[in-house]
Amino acid sequence: MKIWFQKHTIIGRNPWLDETYPKHAKAMLEDRAEVTFVGLPDAVYDDQIPADYVRFGQIEVFFSWYFASQAVKAERAGYDAYVIGTSQDPGLAMARSLVSIPVLAYGETAFSLARTHGLRFGVVGFIPELQEALTANIRRLGLAESCAGFAYLPGGRDLVTAATRDGSTDALAEAMGEAATTLRAQGAQCIVPGEGLPNEMLWAAGIHEVGGLPVIDCDGLVMLTAETAARARRLHVWAPDDDSYDTRRAPDDVIDRMTEIFSPGGGKW
């Protein structure tokens, strides 16, 4: 089984992080599935992390199309499932309309797990501008009552950037613990990392609890869920390509022509 995991970061900018993701996949899936981690094109930004870009909904429009179009590449390359590995789930609805393989997303999967188990979750992150997008997604999913609130780390960007260099997570974990304590007082029963980077850093450090609350390992969860969804599809437990408006399939040559005409830059799959 093959899973395509699409990230917002650029491969090669953070070597420690690039090594951590495959280790995480191996720990979750062992030899049951192969996960390919794919980042953004090198020219998208010059920084170490995309924090100055994902805070703009205007730019997220382009990311959303890119993430959706990558799902088509994944399906045509023989992948069994596609993962949108970033909290605001860019391009999720579009990707699900474009392909028949299961499409899973970091935010939706984590929030839904908490609700399934009757838990109120709090979100701890370092990019405050994402709260608006995450809140909209939570409401769309019907999970507003399950969300205890958001907490964003003072100086969080510096903490995350420093940790991506060598995996030193002590300061980040301490700050997240303080934020989690605040959310616990507001009724949170578990923590969802507000972005994929701190999630990966906590997992690599073996930290599964902050501020007395369990942390949902959103990256691990979405990989496991993708595996389950793909196996369920193989066994005809469910079919994501039923005959509905959003999933009805036009011929590939028509989709290719639409892509050339309408996609940003007139790109191809």
Give me the secondary-structure topology:
Layout (H helix, E strand, L loop, with lengths): L1 E5 L8 H15 L4 E5 L12 H4 L2 H20 L4 E4 L7 H7 L4 E3 H11 L4 E5 L4 H11 L6 E6 L3 H11 L3 H16 L4 E4 L2 H9 L4 E2 L2 E2 L3 H17 L17 H11 L7
Parallel strand pairs: 1-2, 1-3, 3-4, 5-6, 5-7
Antiparallel strand pairs: 8-9
Helix pairs in contact: 1-9, 1-10, 3-4, 5-10
Care to give the gist of this entry?
The protein is of the alpha/beta class. The protein contains eleven helices and nine strands. It has helices at 15-29, 51-54, 57-76, 92-98, 106-116, 130-140, 156-166, 170-185, 196-204, 218-234, 252-262, and strands spanning 2-6, 34-38, 81-84, 103-105, 121-125, 147-152, 190-193, 209-210, 213-214.
Detailed description of the structure:
This protein has 269 residues and is an alpha/beta fold. It has one domain (2-266): 3-Layer(aba) Sandwich (Rossmann fold). It is built from eleven helices and nine strands. The strands form three sheets. A four-stranded parallel sheet has the order 2-1-3-4, with helices on both faces. It has a three-stranded parallel sheet with strand order 6-5-7, with helices on both faces. A two-stranded antiparallel ribbon has the order 8-9. β5 (121-125), α6 (130-140) and β6 (147-152) form a beta-alpha-beta unit. The longest helix has 20 residues, at 57-76. The two termini are 22 Å apart. The mean pLDDT is 93.
